[in-house]
Amino acid sequence: LRFGTSNRATASIGTALLKAAKDAGFLKDHILDKHLALDHKKIERSKQRVMNVCKERHNNEVKKEGIQCIMFDGRKDLTKTVVYGNDGKSYPREIKEDHYSVCSEPGGKYLFHFVNNSEEREARTPAEHIAEQLYDWIIAHGIENQLIAIGGDSTNLNTDLINWETEEIIEPVLTCLIRDDIIQFINNPMVVPNFPIHGQSIERIAKEVTRASTWKPFLHMNNHGKTITLDELSSAVTCFGMSKSTRQCKFTNLCYNTLRDEYLFLHGANSSMFGVPTPRNDPALVDLSGVDDHNAKYFSYTDVPSSYLFNKKYLFVEGNSIIFHRFNPENLMHVFHDDLMTIFYTKSLFYPHSEVNLVMTDRRDEGPYFDLYKLYSNSIYTSINFTDTDFVCFQSALVGLSKQLTWYQYGFKIPQGPLNNTHYPKNDLLYFKNDFLTRMNLSDIPDTKCILLLSRTTSRKILNEAQLLFKLSTFFRLPIYSVSLETDALNNIISLILRASLVISMHGAQLILGIFMKPGAVLAELFPYAVPPENYTPYKTLADLISVRYVAWKNNNPVNNYPHEEREPQLGGLRHLPKELQLLIKNTTTVPPHLCCSDSYWLYRIYQDTVIDVDDLLQHLKQFNFLNQNDHECLSNHTSLFCAIYPSEVTNITCRRDSDRIEIFWDIPWNMITFGETRILYEVFIKDSFNSIVKFLTKETFLVYTISTESLDYSIFIRSIFYKNYGSFSFTGLKC
């Protein structure tokens, strides 16, 4: 087999060897000479059996080795052959044929070889023949899903390695090709001739191999066309926060399995994990959305070795990414409260001066407010972007939105209501407002007062809207506008809200736009019949946070109530329910406390249409002076953050004590003088030697206190207040 000896010659040599062995006594005498004769047909069959065994052993070794790269090289060798002349006779000849040897790399282990004879050259080009041979061998050995690269040199010129783009000799690299469905993710699409290649014909071979094959890409690429090595794809994570609700985790090389909707942590040489709790999933590592503890929005990851991605198709996303789930992209309240505000705050904490990718793996449609997300990133990925790839890996990813700016819970475990907002960062909410308006290019709005009605056109309608508008305009003598999310552009609505002294609306998601109201303005929220305003307070809570005055009005007259029991259940319909339950719901005069989100009592009542008792509503609004908002001047300009100012410590405290009184004097906080502000309150605490304390509140920088005890001395502590911002005490106090 190794030396190409013919079957007849092998049979003759074998027969002579066996006879000589018998003559020498190596074989037993009873063996007859006729049994020592070898037939050339037996030799042929034996050769075939040996070749089959060797081939099977070779194939098994190939599969075990996990070959990722094959290299080939060719040369012209003399080959003995037989040609037939015109006379019909055969003649021995030697011809030159292209012989190609294929080996695995690294290591240079021989795999197989093939030739390109004259008949094949006439039928196809050399590149086509090489491609076909390589493809057939790859498929036959089942390595189509693990092969990363093919390289070779089929030229008869020693051209070394040439970059055809720059025409410069460069360092050796593997010839590679990008599949067509990967090229779409590359900013500047590349073609094979632009790659560094061996010789002049490899690009043609690579093209032919690609045409002949349907296997995975030879070389995985990121979105900038750079190669990614598996060592670089070791994952790492650092987490901040003590609970799932408050935790954010920054990952390096976090991967996402698009088929399983599952995140992967690749354990490799460079992996590390800091701040990851034990147990890790109790019940999850972090929340994927801005809503606290919603079990449909949990994040956890699966541990796999870095080798798991060997030969798998993936997209690599460079840069910083924030991965999250939108809670409800169809609802404007949820878009602002749960998504935009949390994105803004998280980005401000971790990437204040950097661009980020927003990655939404919630598998939902874009929704009507998708353009609002584009205000915060030029690179947005949704599940639609990942439909053509099985895996996505992120160079740097942050998971876990900060919920610092959220103020309301929606009733998944207890009836809905405000969160604990005792230490709510109101100034940060103002930062969000200013930043959003800047991104919307709404920083210059005329300061002309108006009244704004946020109308609804499909559900929860005001049935006497024209009458309401007329009486409001007549009563307040201000311009009045009616706008709707269904018919008007969002930026136009916000422009009017910035001017409005009074905003009126039925309860609904559109009221989240009240965040853009001027401090001191009035927000009037209207509720249908049987819906108690005190149980549904997201917008009342918002108004308190932004110093907007708030009033709730409820229809108490069942005659003015128009329900829709014929609609679908999620829009207040009742016909899917038993008759007895339908009657019970209709006769209920107050929606009982309930959980989110399919309570029939709630849905039936909240989707009612209403005839507003305009005179009754005006009685509720008369308490407000719409022309005087000076009590909230620090926030009257939406571009100002004046309310974030805290006064410095009160200094130069002196006292003069007489027999019956104490006179106390102090200076204005020095930093308030730099702002030109004198509208400051002072809180004065006086403690006698019996530990009895009295407190005074004054606008002056002096206080006269009448002595009422026989105390030997008095300790005096003073702090200043500027628009609810309390300065620090003079901690040492003053003895008097």
TrEMBL record:
This is Uncharacterized glycosyltransferase AGO61. GO terms for biological process: protein O-linked glycosylation via mannose. It is found in: Membrane. It comes from Hydra vulgaris. Keywords: Glycoprotein, Glycosyltransferase, Membrane, Transferase, Transmembrane, Transmembrane helix. It is a single-pass membrane protein. The keyword Metal-binding does not apply. PANTHER family: GLYCOSYLTRANSFERASE, PROTEIN O-LINKED-MANNOSE BETA-1,4-N-ACETYLGLUCOSAMINYLTRANSFERASE 2. GO terms for molecular function: protein O-acetylglucosaminyltransferase activity. One of its GO terms (cellular component) is membrane. Its main location: membrane. Residues 418-523 form the Glycosyltransferase 61 catalytic domain.
